[in-house]
Design goal:
It is a single chain. This protein has 221 residues and is of the alpha/beta class. The protein has one domain. 35% of the residues lie in helices and 14% in strands. Strands 3-4-5-6-7-8-9 form a seven-stranded parallel β-sheet. It is globular.
Length: 221
């Protein structure tokens, strides 16, 4: 479904309507529909590090504190030339904490998808980041995402605590059942205790260590 164009030329675009001006929408909450992605990242770099490097042969990720990348929403055009230099982008990981009001969880999922649609319209390869909070968002977070394509999830900080792990794994089961991804990019741990069943389903799991674990392992060495 497409949206009606409304003339707001006299208004400041405070909610980044330009990002979805030509979007098709899906689901109850009208997330922009994204084109499927089939590429697999060779390496990942955090957004804040991407701003300082000249090594562009990698994909940018946003698995950081929200405060570190909120600027991608507030000043998106500022960072577009930088992101275009890289091989691709895993979409922003705006938080969907379970103790957040549902409206905020939905808004943060929407913001990630709006950024994704805009980046695709600018010719940048993207991978959808699937982030959900409580069970109310398991289905919502799949809206606008194609089946049988590559998706990304962040497991870092989600499987150490029992309650967090329960919601993360339940949600992932739901996402995989609905989207049937061709491959899953995992930022953080991808222990066989939790991911082997997906491998048995024939879904390749491409795991990338979190920056925190990489830092600690280098410190030990």
């Amino acid at each position: 479904m497409a949206k009606e164009n409304v003339n707001r030329s006299s208004c400041r675009d405070v909610f980044n309507a330009f990002m979805v001006s030509d979007a098709e929408y899906a689901g109850k909450y009208e997330f922009p529909v994204l084109f499927p992605t089939y590429k697999i990242p060779n390496r990942l770099i955090a957004f804040t590090d991407a701003l300082k490097t000249k090594d562009y042969d990698q994909w940018v990720h946003f698995y950081q504190d929200d405060a570190d990348f909120e600027r991608i929403w507030r000043q998106p055009r500022t960072y577009l030339p930088i992101l275009k230099k890289f091989k691709g982008v895993i979409l922003p990981d705006f938080s969907t904490y379970r103790d957040m009001p549902l409206a905020m969880q939905i808004w943060n999922i929407y913001r990630s998808r709006a950024v994704g649609h805009w980046l695709q319209s600018e010719g940048i390869d993207i991978i959808v980041n699937i982030r959900y909070g409580d069970d109310r968002t398991y289905d919502i977070c799949c809206d606008g995402v194609s089946q049988n394509c590559v998706i990304a999830v962040g497991s870092h900080g989600t499987i150490k605590v029992t309650d967090d792990r329960k919601f993360f794994l339940q949600g992932l089961d739901h996402v995989i059942e609905r989207l049937k991804p061709s491959a899953i990019i995992v930022y953080g741990s991808a222990s066989d205790a939790y991911f082997f069943k997906y491998k048995e389903m024939g879904i390749p799991i491409h795991q990338f260590d979190s920056d925190t674990s990489t830092y600690h392992s280098q410190g030990v060495d």
